[in-house]
Amino acid sequence: MASTSQAPNPGARTAHPDHLGHVIFIAAAAAMGGFLFGYDSSVINGAVEAIRDRYDVGSAVLAQVIAVALIGCAIGAATAGRIADRIGRIRCMQIAAVLFTISAVGSALPFALWDLAMWRVIGGFAIGMASVIGPAYIAEVSPPAYRGRLGSFQQAAIVIGIAVSQLVNWGLLNAAGGDQRGELMGLEAWQVMLGVMVIPAILYGLLSFAIPESPRFLISVGKRERAKEILEEVEGKDTDFDARVAEIEHAMHREEKSSFKDLLGGSFYFKPIVWVGIGLSVFQQFVGINVAFYYSSTLWQSVGVDPTQSFFYSFTTSIINIVGTVIAMIFVDRIGRKPLALIGSVGMVIGLALEAWAFSFDLVDGKLPATQGWVALIAAHVFVLFFALSWGVVVWVFLGEMFPNRIRAAALGVAASAQWIANWAITASFPSLADWNLSGTYVIYTIFAALSIPFVLKFVKETKGKALEEMG
User: Fold this and answer.
1) Strand partners, 188
2) 430 and 63 Cβ atoms separated by less than 8 Å
3) Which backbone phi and psi does 367 adopt, to 5 degrees?
4) From CA 382, how far away is CA 316, in angstroms rounded?
5) Domain for residue 228, yes or no?
6) Does 80 reside within a domain?
7) Domain total of the chain
8) Closest C-alpha to 297, from 464, 56, 52
9) Is residue 206 part of a domain?
10) Model pTM?
11) Is residue 231 part of a domain?
């Protein structure tokens, strides 16, 4: 471990911190960005068919309007690390909260398709910022012994945001008589769905004023005494804070000149560890998980399920997502990140393969045959469960932990950007692929889930129980 002095009690940082409840509050408040990430990402699910109908657009144009937010996500993720290093993690959260609010209001009151797309890009930029700042901040304020579980708050918040958005959409749809374009509060139902996000966006902004700045950022700008106070809050009174500050300062010295160039391995190619982070991000998306959250209502309606039931199935899938995430939070620090990823990959292969089989049958009277319909529904829930208890959580935990201090901010930004670009590729391609061959589309996702197994076995190293300063 890199340090210029030794703490008298090396075990203090793994002991029960004096203020664990306070640390949990800090992590939960920071993870509110993850809630907005999940809410904003999936709320569009309730508006897809209404947007198609109102603006009379085909699958290709519709897909671009849905997916364009992900371009904003990629830009936000790529720049958030540098912004946070300059003005602090908390200020970065506050900027994201403002952007979430602007996006919600604009999306609810669009003049035309083009400005709806613009508001979604702005919301996407906020999501990208939250996707980087949340896990990085939580990793920096968490005691090592609890970092995995606290780090999983980000994914827990994301899946709760997804579930709440689907529940709200379902409730609003019923209030509008089952019509996505039905009148509600003087607007069409889908507009209200998109506008409701104003409430959690404002709450996120308020919570950001109630949590402390990251000790690592404070040390980087010379505020050592304030950093010690926060370290005492999160690591307990038994820690030698001079030794901890010296340890972090030593790591920060190596981080001072961190830039995109530092990610290159002596040529135009990234260092191997950066490629591993990119690989984790790409595999997390190429299994098609966000199809379940962006298009599930459309998917179920395409195989004969009525709109109200399709919204309900979107909600039940989101509940399964929460259950899986809770399982991951329980086991991520017990059995480790890598075993969970492998378990999840196997389960996803089974679920996706069954979906591909079910969707290969011809529709009868506009519906899947009864057996295949039930298999598709159950398999979709199995897939989401295994994703949630594994890749949904461990990828974010890995990205917050796996990079050396010297390149962490820049590498996390690149990996998160790769995740958003991969997300965009899946989201933009699904409507056209589904029109081509729905079963074949799920075969593709199954192949990527299967390929993730040898990738994890060969290239991913366990980070369980290691301090951030130990990452080489």
Assistant:
1) 183
2) yes
3) -130, 155
4) 12
5) no
6) yes
7) 1
8) 52
9) yes
10) 0.76
11) no
